[in-house]
Amino acid sequence: MAVKIATAPCSWGVWYADGTPSGTPAQLFLDQARQAGYKALELGPDGYLPEEREVLEQELSRRGLEAASGTACYRFDQYERFDDFRPAVEKLCARVAAVGGKYLVTMDESDVGLYSEKKAGYTPAVWNKYHAMFREMGAFTQREFGLMTVYHPHIKSLIETEEEILRLLDATGLNLCFDTGHHAYVNGNGRPGDPSVPDFIRRYAKRIKYLHFKQVDGQVYARVLREHLDSDTAFDMDVMCDLPDGIIDFKAVKQALEDIHFDGIGVVESDMPKASNERAFASACRNLSYLREIQMID
């Protein structure tokens, strides 16, 4: 097993190009990522870090940071075909490839309803449309830029349940950015030691090329289920917590990764929309220390 560790703006509460919801300045994120001990980054929302290649290269290199991947988040429900958003993908891929990234992490931001209820009415033709978009996007990024597109299943999106993930794999040929927290939230049992993450890793080893390390707070999640809260509310309640603290047993995850001889990137990616810069930095340091403690990384 060889996990190359990285982090991302998401761990500082940055979900959008303007730095919201946390408002963390890009320069502060870069400084603190390096100070915490990270050496590689998923670049995060397109436009948050400098878009000029030379400027981005300089900002990374002077801190000893590498680009592991770019992040491509789209509302796929606004498009009919890949060509509709190809220019945005092309611009992003050119920048990612120029600074040495090897992957494009893509995820969906479609309006599927507060509880994903709108997907219940999707016909096979609708699913085929989306799968065609993803398939063509992956072929394009690999052919034109040598970037592997890895699909990130995400809470409250087109692809989140295990059934949806397996259909995606069969229909598109894409590999996964497997996010432990999102998977456990949607597909797990909510109890300490929930086996859903290591079980999935073992069953679909060949399709997991990239990881997001994230954890679920069992007490918050129990309240979410008890009160039937939506995921936006759950995230505002910090349903995602530091890696040592939740229901996913990361020692079991480590064993699963060893069993499949995983060799790739693992991004510590804590969703912290309300965290202060101080708290985000402390969390980033603690999570990295924990992964070293359990010998997930050197």
How would you characterize the overall build of this protein?
The chain has 298 residues and is of the alpha/beta class. It has helices at 26-36, 53-61, 86-98, 124-145, 162-172, 180-187, 196-203, 218-227, 231-236, 250-259, 277-293; strands at 2-7, 40-42, 66-74, 103-108, 148-151, 175-179, 208-213, 215-216, 240-241, 263-268. The strands form 2 sheets. The chain has an 8-stranded parallel sheet with strand order 1-10-7-6-5-4-3-2. The protein is globular, with a radius of gyration of 18 Å. It starts with a strand and ends in a 5-residue tail after the last helix. The model has no long low-confidence stretch (mean pLDDT 97).
Taking all residues together, what is the mean pLDDT? 97
Number of strands: 10
Judged by helices, strands and strand pairing, the structural class is alpha/beta
Q: Give the terminus-to-terminus CA distance.
A: 11 Å
Element pattern in H and E: EHEHEHEHEHEHHEEHHEHEH
Q: How does the major sheet shape up?
A: 8 strands, parallel
User: Biggest sheet, strands in spatial order?
Assistant: 1-10-7-6-5-4-3-2
Q: What's the gyration radius in Å?
A: 18 Å
| Percent helix | 40-55%
The quaternary organization reads as single chain
Describe what is shown at a glance:
With 298 residues, the protein is an alpha/beta fold. It is built from 11 helices and 10 strands.
Write the layout of secondary structure elements.
Elements: E1 2-7, H1 26-36, E2 40-42, H2 53-61, E3 66-74, H3 86-98, E4 103-108, H4 124-145, E5 148-151, H5 162-172, E6 175-179, H6 180-187, H7 196-203, E7 208-213, E8 215-216, H8 218-227, H9 231-236, E9 240-241, H10 250-259, E10 263-268, H11 277-293
Parallel strand pairs: 1-10, 2-3, 3-4, 4-5, 5-6, 6-7, 7-10
Antiparallel strand pairs: 8-9
Helix pairs in contact: 1-11, 7-10
